[in-house]
Amino acid sequence: MQLRFFLLLLIVIPALEIGTFIWLGNLIGPWWVAGLIIATGLFGFYFVRQQGAETFRKAQLQMQQGYAPTEELMDSIALFFGAILLILPGFILDVVGLILVLPWTRNLIKHQLKRLMTRMMGKGTIIYRRW
């Protein structure tokens, strides 16, 4: 079931991105579309670099105080996937990448991810074991 969904996404997302490129190319021109693709990639690289450094500093501070940096690890994961999506060409992927990179929207995603992980741990899908 999950593999079929993943394969479907591999077909549908590129098709939607190509359609978006063609639509925007007709609307604003192909050179503007190419410029926007490059600009979102550069913006993503710069913003993720800035947010990543801040998250790293917060994680160091948490560890120095003797706490586990769980929030910072969730931020790092979201920033990593957001950066990948922002660097890949495509406007739909850029929107999803921005949702993962911007701090106020990232917090909503983290909350949903925590609920999902808690539910999966309750069902036995995720096994947590101390060694």
TrEMBL record:
One Pfam assignment: FxsA
Matching NCBIfam families: PRK11463.1-2
Record-linked PANTHER family: UPF0716 PROTEIN FXSA
Organism annotation: Oceanobacillus kimchii
Keyword Manganese: no
UniProt keyword Transmembrane helix present: yes
Protein's name according to its UniProt entry: UPF0716 protein YtzA
Domain of life the protein comes from: Bacteria
Lineage: Bacteria, Bacillati, Bacillota, Bacilli, Bacillales
Membrane-crossing segments per the record: 6-24, 31-48, 77-105
Keywords assigned: Membrane, Transmembrane, Transmembrane helix
